[in-house]
Amino acid sequence: MYYWDSFFTIKGLLASGMHDTVRGMIENMGSLIERFGYVPNGNRVYYLNRSQPPLLTWCLSAYYEATGDKEFVFTGARWFEREFEFFQTHKSIQLPGVTSLLYRYHVVAVGPRPESYREDVESAHHIEDVLEKQRLWGDIAAAAESGRDFSSRWFSQDGPVAGKMGSTRTSSILPIDLNAIICGNLRLMANLYEVIDDMSSAEHCRQQFRSMKQAIHQVFWNEECGCWFDYDIIHGCHVNVYMDTNFFPLFSGCTHDDFDPQKIVSYMTNMGVLAFPGGLPSSLIASGQQWDFPNAWAPTTWVVIQGLRSTGQHELARQIAEKWIKRNYRMWLISGGRMFEKVGIFEI
Predict the structure, then answer these.
(1) Is 341 a catalytic residue?
(2) Which pTM does this prediction carry?
(3) What interhelical angle do 19-36 and 70-90 show, nearest 10?
(4) Who has the most CB within 10 Å: 226, 240, 248, 271?
(5) pLDDT tens-digit profile of 11-34?
């Protein structure tokens, strides 16, 4: 089991009427939280030093919407609380002048990842100091924790190994998608607490949601560009590059009160990302990493489509979905019936 992949699997299972299977998957995640305090990257011993995008609450909410199972919401609420506590304790930082905690991917490592030992040793070959090697290995593991392993998003653009794995600096970045997910968790749990008549907890979550929504606007929104961006903690500025993760607040319901969705449409148009026949690229940087140009991925494509739909941009959402379906159907035909985890965005 891989954590964030499970949410998208669950959406498909619910659409197929496999409610018992979904409940079992969520119970497995809950069991991991009860044992470790969080859902690991995957259910393997070598994944125990990291988690992944915390989508358990989204899984629970989707299951409740499909089944109306209030009793299971009672059970799931304690899992949300423990996971949220874990992220607050181990993944949060407090920026000056910002009322809400914000979150990053952060892993403490003493050595390379066991499952990619040789690659991590090679990535640190230019570093002599042991503590600096461990910092790099932690940031590489944190990039895996993000679910986007790997991408230029996490690389430094300065220094002798700029743009390569050896420059990974994940813990120096506040990712907009992670913060939008956690903000959305608070919104969803406020609703779920109301379902089980826990109005005190519902109001507490709603207050935290409002505070975090304001922080997302304050820290991540760039009015000049009309989009959200990751935030560079070290340099105190936006990472002003296109990533398909920039649009997660649309999906999570964490847009600011006077938000105009047309600004996002204009940003996407100006960046040229709507012109590709195969879908939305993960980025516009051809780094050779799988979460970069020219690849498009199902999870983030789905998030963008749902986010556009939820903000009234139905026609653009339909166009992106149509491109995605046509590209995957074409790949299925020419490969003899195979589906792929990622596809290229150019003509084939």
Answers:
(1) yes
(2) 0.98
(3) 40
(4) 248
(5) 999 999 999 999 999 999 999 999
